[in-house]
Amino acid sequence: MSRRAALDAWAARGLDLEALVGRWLDPGTLAVPTDTLPLAVAPFGVIEVAEAIASLLEGRLTMGDRVRAFEEAWAAAVGVPHAVMVNSGSSALLVMLTALVQTGRLRPGQEVVVPAVGWSTSLFSVAQAGLRPVLVDVDPDSLCLEGEHDRPVLALHLLGCPSRATGPLVIEDACGAHGAMVGERRVGSLGVAAAFSFFFSHHLTTGEGGAITTADRELADAMRSIRAHGWTRERSDRAALEAAHPDVDPRFLFVEPGYNLRPTEVAGAFGIHQVPRLEGYVARRNENHQAWCAAVTELGLPLRVFPQLPGTRHAAFAFPLLLDADAPLDRAELCRRLEARGVQTRPISGSNLARQPAFAQVPGARVEGPLPVADAVHERGLFVGQSHAFDERHAAILLDALGAAFVC
Ligand SMILES: Cc1ncc(COP(=O)(O)O)c(C=O)c1O
Fold first, then answer.
1. Based on the domain organization, do 92 and 173 belong to the same domain?
2. CB of 162 within 8 A of CB of 180?
3. 154 in a domain, yes or no?
4. pTM of the predicted structure, to 2 decimals
5. Does 30 score more than 70 pLDDT?
6. Does the beta carbon of 206 lie inside 6 Å of ligand 1?
7. CA-based, 20 to 30 A from 148: which of 61, 164, 272, 360?
């Protein structure tokens, strides 16, 4: 729905939301600082806020028509028949992996290859679903798992870079890679199922939020139960399940062990107006990524960048950097100098997950093979922000700060 059409529809119902919010919110993106390089810029404007207000004024709090409309739009954007919205990317991972086990696509206790560099809950959710995570080192050029694996694999698209890992079953963590592509295929459609996050700092946002995409209807049905108490509502096979269990009141018929990880309708309200922004945002991020890689390389500093790999589209969630082993300053000092010049920094996600204190408490987790790339990332990697809203002024802030950081 266009912004104008939505505003007209609300006005017809007596909600003059344009008057309420339109005068203080820019229609595209909230305020973008131009003298600092923040980690993220909130990628929403008046239309999302107005739609959220409309859902509240209608008295709709938990998921309803807007969440359903967002699911349809997101499935279409990814290129698969089904999307199931949940309340975070971590919940999407948990629901997806639990559904894979409960539908028999994975066996309880089966090993899943997980990248040693990734996010904490990417690792934890594998074990929480009753599977055994095996940490394997990542590729030095993509910082993702690559190549053919002999066990099911969690292809985690790190910071917008698509992983091309394959195996007997490919499960995607696309939480930070909206719109990334391998060949002509979008992440989210590369394997049996994929988890996305719509946390506020991501390409598209629903505040907090997540979704799972899949072409497997039975799996999608299981996920709809697991997201909401294990009951049958929202399932395509609801009628058949109710008929098969005439002794249970169909209003509270529980068919899968589940959780309550439902999104709010406000999240759906944001989501339906976010999806049309995807292409423009990813194109702009991708352009920035390529330009920044070239410009940083040109500075000739002792650090490396991670350009888009042939045959892929990088979605540029954030901009990773890796200090050379013999650089004259360490990661902590580089971060301190960048932060002093208004460039926010973070480690590259959880860096080497095997070195996180929580790893020892993850049931069944183990490391396979040496992890030299993950260790390098752990000791010398960092990222700075990237956004569709950044332009040459932001590139200049980064380049100036990097140049100054290496002047002793
Ligand atoms: C790769 C990856 N997986 C999972 C998550 C978790 O998503 P959420 O914060 O929505 O729970 C993140 C968060 O940024 C992520 O980067």
1. yes
2. yes
3. yes
4. 0.95
5. no
6. no
7. 360
